[in-house]
Design a protein that fits this description.
Strand order of the largest sheet: 2-1-3-5-4
Structural class: alpha/beta
Largest sheet: 5 strands, mixed
Radius of gyration: 27 Å
Distance between the termini: 53 Å
Number of strands: 5
Strand content: 5-15%
Helix content: 55-70%
């Protein structure tokens, strides 16, 4: 949380600290190879069960940071040919750090974001499709707010968290009975990590809307 606020300043300071290094184009060739190699290696796996993968993730950034810091500090203090040699070593370590970071972004962050974003997008599209364009509706669920977050700027959604309150959702039933109207229908989304919601509410029934809606139910008020 706090490093994100300081990241821009830290990046600027890092550039200033390494601006004096004798940068050459060949420094970036091993960095590009590292980025490509780790992107392929990390992207081919799903999860951190592999020991070598965990070792790379945990220790390699620290090793690169230590090598970069040590060589940059030594290059600033050295003189003559030693300064030049250490400067090239420091530039190479810094370039490898950037290359490894690119490999992590492409091999871990991108893959994870695509999987998570893809699942969330499919769920959001299902909810939008199964509510049949309703501009205002009640939405019952456990993580319903996350499921419908992308729709919230275009729909007036009344969220009801079934995970709170007594088992069976009597409090949620009272809210639905109070606020459900023909122009504000109620929907249930099966989004709980522990299984489906098993609700038996007197005076209401749960039915799938028309269309491909495996996770969405319409809460229908039964005639008295």
């Amino acid at each position: 949380r706090y490093m994100s606020l300081a990241s821009m300043t830290a990046t600027a300071l890092a550039f200033l600290a390494m601006a004096h290094l004798p940068w050459r184009a060949w420094h970036w060739l091993p960095a590009a190879a590292m980025a490509f190699g780790f992107a392929r290696y990390y992207g081919a796996q799903r999860g951190d069960e592999d020991l070598l993968r965990r070792q790379f993730i945990h220790w390699l950034p620290l090793a690169l940071a230590l090598a970069t810091f040590s060589t940059v500090a030594a290059a600033r203090a050295a003189r003559g040919l030693s300064r030049t040699a250490l400067g090239h070593a420091a530039a190479l370590c810094a370039a490898l750090s950037v290359g490894y970071g690119a490999g992590v972004v492409l091999g871990i962050d991108r893959v994870y974001a695509e999987e998570r974003r893809g699942a969330q997008t499919s769920r959001t599209l299902e909810l939008a499709r199964c509510t049949h364009g309703a501009r205002r509706f009640l939405l019952l669920g456990g993580y319903a707010m996350d499921e419908a977050l992308a729709l919230h700027d275009r729909r007036d959604i009344f969220f009801i968290n079934l995970g709170m309150g007594r088992p069976g959702g009597p409090g949620a039933r009272e809210l639905v009975e109070r606020f459900e109207r023909p122009d504000r229908p109620a929907f249930l989304i099966q989004d709980d990590a522990h299984g489906p919601w098993w609700l038996v509410w007197q005076g209401f029934r749960f039915e799938h809307p028309a269309g491909d809606c495996p996770r969405v139910y319409r809460v229908v008020r039964e005639a008295p």
